[in-house]
Amino acid sequence: MPADFEQRAPAYPPPAAAPTPSFRPFDRRFSSRIASSPSAAHSPGRPSSPAFLSGHSRNASLSSNLHLDGPDTETTTPPWEVVRWTRLQKLNGQAFSESARRTFGSPTCLAVAATIVLGTSKGIILVFDYSQNLKLIIGPGTKAVESGPVTAIAVSADHTTIAGGHANGNIFTWDTSRPSRPFLSIPHLEDSDAQHRTSDGHVANVSVIHLGFLGTRHTALVSADDRGMAFSHLATRGTGALGRTVKTTRILGRYPDAPKPVGKPVKPSTVLAFASLPLGNVECATDIMGLTAMLTPYLLVIVSTTPVAQTQHKSARPKDVPAHSTMTGCLAWFPAVKLKTPDLASGSDMSKVKLAYCWSNVLTILDVTEVPSEDESQPPTLRFKARSRWKCEEAIVAVQWLSRSVITVLTVSQRLIVLEDRTMRMTEAFDLMQRYMYHKDVFSKQLHNLVERLDEEDPSMHGVVADAFYMSFKAYKGRIFILGFNEVSLGALSNWADRLIAMMEHGDYVGAIQLATSYYTGDADKLTVGLPEDQTQRHSMVKDKVLEIISASLKYAFTQRQKDKNVADDAHLKQLAETCFVACLNISNVDFLFDDMFEWYEEADASGIFLEVLEPYILDRSIVFIPPVVVKDMVSYYVVQGWESRLEEMLCHVETATLDLDQVTLLCKQHSLYDALTYVWNQAIHDYITPMIELLGLLVPIMANGNFDGDAVGEDYYSINAVKIFPYLSYTLTSRVYPNGEPMDEDTATQAKAEIYWFFFSGQTVTWPKGSGKAFLTRLGEDYEPSFPYLRLILHYDAPSFLSALNEAFEDPFLNDTPDKKTKGASPVDMPEEQIFGQTINRQYILSILLDVMNPDDFAATDTIYLDMFIARNLPKFPQYLLFSGSTLSNVLEGLCNYPGQDLAEDAQLSAEYLLSVYHPTDMTALLPQFKKAGFYRILKRIFKVDKQYGTLIRTYFEDPDDQDQVFECLADCLRPSQKLGFQQRNDIHEAILDHARDLLELSPEKSAVVLAGESTETQKQILDSASDSPDLQFAYLKTLLDSERETLPEEQAPDRHLIEQYVRLMCTFEPSHVSDYVNLVQAGDLRLDEVLPTMEESGVVDAAVTILTRDGLVEKAMQRLIAHFGTLESALQGVLAGAADWHDDPVDLQASIEELLQGLQKYIYVGIWLCQGHQKPAKRATQVQKKSKGAKAALTTDESLWLQLIEAAVKLTKQISPDIQNAVAIAHLDGERLLTLLRSLVQHTFTALLASTSGQSPGQSASKLIAAGGTNHSFLRILRAFLANAAASSPNLADLRGVLASIFSAYAYEESILRLSNRLLERNLFVNVSQSVELRQRGWRPRGSTCEHCGRRVWGPGVAGGAVFEAWEAKQAIEEAHRLEKKSLVGGDPTMEADGKGKGKSLDMRPASVLLEEQQIKDQAADASVSGAAATKDPPLGPLVVLACRHIYHQSCLDAVQDKQENGTGPARDRDYRCPIDG
User: Fold this and answer.
1) I want to staple 366 with a disulfide (CB 3.0 to 4.6 A). Which of 7, 355, 396, 1456 is the partner?
2) Gap between the Cα atoms of 647 and 639, Å rounded
């Protein structure tokens, strides 16, 4: 069985097994197994509460997929019908039968109010009641049947008047009580009135596609047609149709023959959607304003038609509408209505007017708010605000309000989607394709040009215009009406009760309970299913239904289990139980679980399932009151299952008021459930002593004479349970309930603490329960009990754990010796003994008792050390409450120094530090040896630092094996100038440094150098000498000291020459590549040649040796040393090449080795070039020397001799190694071209540098130019002559000399060819780019059309009138050719031009560009005039053309004429700025 408490320190065995337990008893906090695992309810092997899961939704339980279908999804159908469809068979038989179609025509539009109204293709209107009886046939024998199909229907607010719009533009209204003749006739305009129009109206043969009544009036209508025009119609009062006159006012659009506005293109338009605001059940100012909403492809317009037409709101199409999508538009009003309960968002009892409108796939909800006017006679101002927006996956073709909070939309693929208004959450979605909805292409003809002229750069364009569905999709009082090609259907969304019943009938009672619970909590789509938003109303409606479904489900499930256990198995019952628990907790009816539901499970012998489901709710304290009968079954079931620990955890989380205490305590003792037993005693009886007696009673058998006996029988069993007393003490003494950790109330905590302190520290044997006469004895079979028997017992068993618990208790204010401890009005005489003791207990008393009990005679040092640590740690925390004598504290300090085991060293030192922070011994010097023996180096360092014994302090750091790295920080602090050290202190530090110099270097030579940089040269030498056998440490030290970017110390001296020379010598070994760079940085006098040169030569650091020799003026010697090194490298390379056959299997490594040697040669060639260039005399002096020796054989100067030696060495290397490379390539198949190129580069770089130096030219010049420059320089010629002379003398024949010369100049031919090729590529790229730029510049603007926008005559392209265009072009070409010949003759024959041009090509015209441009324009105009004159004999001249930025094209004469008319003829045409008359 695992330990029943956890600690923050590592686990430890019993004290007898480890005399020096390695843990920190005062750095930990006890915690019980139960309180330390708040997530135990979620641990593996334990059932999780369904309450931890996310709220159940109907979609999850039924796998009902309300999203649009995807290629990888399978849509399952819920057991209920989302919409219950009703086919109106009787109506359909009368309207869609063959005879009906022959008589009335096919239905074309639908309107729904108190009746169902159909318009037909023969101009007849059919009116049905809801019993599907045909009540009226309107139109036969009237002009209506002559006006074409009915294309729009409207019903008045009182349902007594019906209006119909027809295909030819006529509108008729009909009184349903007298349907034989029209109530009003609103004819279209006649064609003869088009020119002299005196009134407004629809144009003849243009369909009226939208119609609506205004307010409550029968004589006020609004209408719109498919050409984008809308009108309001107001009839005067009168008797009969002839006595009334109708005034029609245009509110949108323009007539087809209206003049087009200047400067603006006229886009095709139509009215995609149109609706007048219906009446609500509450009076509003908007009722009398006649609000009408109209949706065009570009704008939403809302106008008020009463008393006069006035625009109230405009908004453009949202930018969210995707470009080139399907063009659709629809809208629907919802009027203001009186609310049964105030709106949750606004608090108003009246809803706002709302408008839902859609463009393509974007749905927007617009709120209309009335702002009262200050003048009561004036109507209120309307404020429009777009509140919500929702994007569908496809275009929306119709929208309707099912209720105030539910919207239904129809998509272009005939999919019906139901949305909640506020959240814009999609709650339902299903397909209506099988309904064959009636739809018609109404708008594509009018919008043909807008769609066909598709411009990919214009985001306002659409790809296609969808058919119209608005006339066949209507909603009325929560019902959906659909007009199909063959029938009319009525649909209603199923409500919440219907859905629950359907699920129960389907057999999914678990899903029904979950769905009912979600309805109760409001997680489901409550608005769609007819549930109110108000929580109180919703709870009252659903609560009884939840209990009813749970009861029915339990009855059904257990009845099925009696018939066949496999039908309702354990897993199914568990799922049912989990669901019922969640439901009952949500409706706050836990009693049902234990009164009714538990009986079902108990009778079916399945109570274990119920109890396992109950467990997580007990642990998270969702359910805390458990009836005794359930507790009894729970204990029995969990014990049988072997889950005692889980049972114990549950018992510690329930309220004890409902427990049978005798039964529970008996069971807990029987099964060793001591945590639960303690919890019951504490919470139910408020007894805090009995648990300690029970737990300590377990120790008595295993404690021989008060001492722990590790060999006692049953020791493991007793110890495992007895150890629970420590977390119990920790929790109770810090006011926490054991074992769940909840806080105690103040009175209970005071009682508990007083009883515990009395039990341990009263010093007497306790008789408990009081009056029982039964004393609790700790030493069985003996005649006496020691003082403080229980304290001695627990200290002998586990002193560190007890003191650790007491350490937590010391932080509690209960032990403060203050007047805060009150008796709460009770007299001390009436208080029990333990409570009186609790009033007097304090920290000083406790520690005094502990010091007396834990004396060295009765307790071993392994126990008393913990008391010493306890005192040392608490004295600094509570100095006002604790007072000890100096001898006591001295004994404590001595005990800490004599800790019994190394694993307690750190704890002991930390405790000693705590103690010394408040206690200052008088004989501190005498304690130093004890501190050193104990290894308390932190204390020693603190003492030495305070006493400024810096030398001893530094030595102490080296004695401390755990903290030596900090010595550098200590040294830096000691050597800081601000310390103002005395002579003796500085001397002590100096001696300490020298004594531990090797230790410092081994710790970190870099840090040592940084800290000791300010020491004298002699000290630095001694430090280095300490590591004479470790040159790597010396090098790292000197590198940081001399060659690093560290901060310079104020007292630091200039580096000594001996240190620099030693660093260079070490660098030749450890970092040879850096020697040359460092030597160049060092002053000339800091390096002696004889000290460093031998080491450099031994190490092969030739470049640094050359640098030093050169700096000392030994240039010739430096060159000789360099040439000698060439020989060494040459020998190495020849050796590798000679052994090429041995590398036959690995040519890659051979290639790399050869390249590495060649690159080494190249590097040292550069060193030679630097040597020659750095010591070359000016060219002028060399020339003077030559003049003095004129006529004799010229002697080379020193610098020329250097160049000659370098060139001869390079040529020699090339000549001797080339054959070896060729042989190796033939043997080992190497990349010979690359190797030879590297070899030839030696000569190339040498000669290039020589030419650049002697000619004074920049290195970037081509080889040919360098050679040409070198030909004019005498120094170069002398060097070359001397080289050729030496080469001729050493070459036996002319062929060898030619080979030498070829090796010199072969590389230059390659370089020059590369430069020429690069130049050609660059020129070609430049030509291509310039050519493209010219071509793009000459493209110009492309005209939008091929005709003049003013006169309409074709100006270019196929079909242009006459042949004058080609003749004019020929004439213009002839004139341009004459201009070119004239320019050529002027350039070739003018002698002044030739003189100015110096006879080298053509001279440029240097006149300003503006003059040349104006002259060219004059010539071009003259050419245009001549061309026009040439063509005048055959066709009228076209004249020049003008193309504007808007891509409109005009004849220039036409454009001049238009602008003359606009400007009243002011200004000549040539000087004016042209502007497009259309676009401005």
Assistant:
1) 355
2) 8
